[in-house]
Amino acid sequence: MTSAIATTMSHVGLWASEDGYIRQQLFPNGRYVEARGAREGVYRGRYRIAGDHIDYIDDSGVTVSGDLRGGAIHHAGSVLYPD
User: Fold this and answer.
1) From its phi and psi, is residue 78 left (phi > 0), alpha (psi between -120 and 50) or beta?
2) Domain span including residue 8
3) What is the reported pTM?
4) What is the CATH number of the domain that holds 9?
């Protein structure tokens, strides 16, 4: 198992903002689905982790990024914690 895959596998699962409004499911196949409030599947696409950086490429081709710090994902002005 490469270190990139190992890093990705350690981050698989549900991540949520402190208030639960933003919920992001990271799957082991490199896909993600994000919910906002009552709206499920608002964003979906692929993700990749390299070191402490995560890139999201949604299915429309838009790319955003975040950082893994202190056991949380810092992404687009939000902080997501493992749920």
Assistant:
1) beta
2) 3-82
3) 0.86
4) 2.40.128.290
